[in-house]
Amino acid sequence: MAATKTTLPMAKALNESLRKALETDPKVLIMGEDVGKLGGVFRITDGLQKDFGEGRVIDTPLAESGIVGTAIGMALRGYRPVVEIQFDGFVFPAYDQIVTQLAKMHARALGKVKLPVVVRIPYGGGIGAVEHHSESPEALFAHVAGLKCVSPSNPSDAYWMLQQAIQSDDPVIFFEPKRRYWDKGEVDTEAIPGPLHKAVVARPGTDLTLVAYGPMVKTCLEAAAAAEEEGKSLEVVDLRSISPLDFDTVQESVERTGRLVVVHEAPVFFGSGAELAARITERCFYHLEAPVLRVGGFHAPYPPARLEEEYLPNLDRVLEAVDRALAY
């Protein structure tokens, strides 16, 4: 019997997940700029057009609104399009199509129409890129009713969550943390995955809860390891899903630890951490030993590459928030 567990970088795990989806369902299509012959700028779709043909892996014009609009039409005809947006900052020409059509058609049709479209967006910084190549726009989409937004933090979740997103009858915005594309991890291709929108405890602890998703989960795990050397026990919760949010798992953790720090790359101002902080404050008011604190990017345009290390939340900024919370 062939082994089902293998060690893969996240980029390869996503590639294998797309391959599996194409093999399993002839209605699955991949569309986007340079996804075919080039295999995508990050090579996520490498080799797929060669193996499945130009009718299933489609190189599109440089027109994000047209790409998403075409995907909506194809979904109405029974297909399951997977759209790649080349970089996070390029999604905005398609924002109108996503929020006024893709997100609303199901409700507009009183449930009679389904739009099983996945919009893949490489997001976040840390790769030394130029303007509009390192942004974190997830809160803009999470705010829109009718869209589901998820983000894996490791290769195993990347493999399984992408397949679950493709199988969903609802539109899913799939945020891929591009600076984690080359991080390796074990992937079991025969595992039974948990629910797509369920958070997981990535590391148990007793003194404080760190909550993150996507690229910041690794940073929080590193912070928990560093804090352990100083005798502090930090629990790390990987949200995995940004909308819907699994408040229950976070609540259970905070009821155990009494403290919460929420971490994300996106600016703190009106970020997804604000919703989580408000809801947990409501639910856990009598369990909290300190205010819920947030760590994230600054309320400023993403800076040039030489300054991004100052902009991005890092180990020190997370640990500083942990110390503030534990000082109460």
TrEMBL record:
Q: Ribonucleoprotein: is it a keyword of this entry?
A: no
Q: Which residues form the signal peptide?
A: none
Report the residue ranges that make up the Transketolase-like pyrimidine-binding domain in this protein: 8-183
Q: InterPro entries under this entry?
A: THDP-binding (IPR029061), Transketo_C/PFOR_II (IPR009014), Transketolase-like_Pyr-bd (IPR005475), Transketolase_C (IPR033248)
UniProt cross-references to Pfam families, sorted A to Z: Transket_pyr (PF02779), Transketolase_C (PF02780)
Q: Which cofactor does it need?
A: thiamine diphosphate
Name the record gives this protein: Alpha-ketoacid dehydrogenase subunit beta
Which species is listed as the source?
Streptomyces glaucosporus
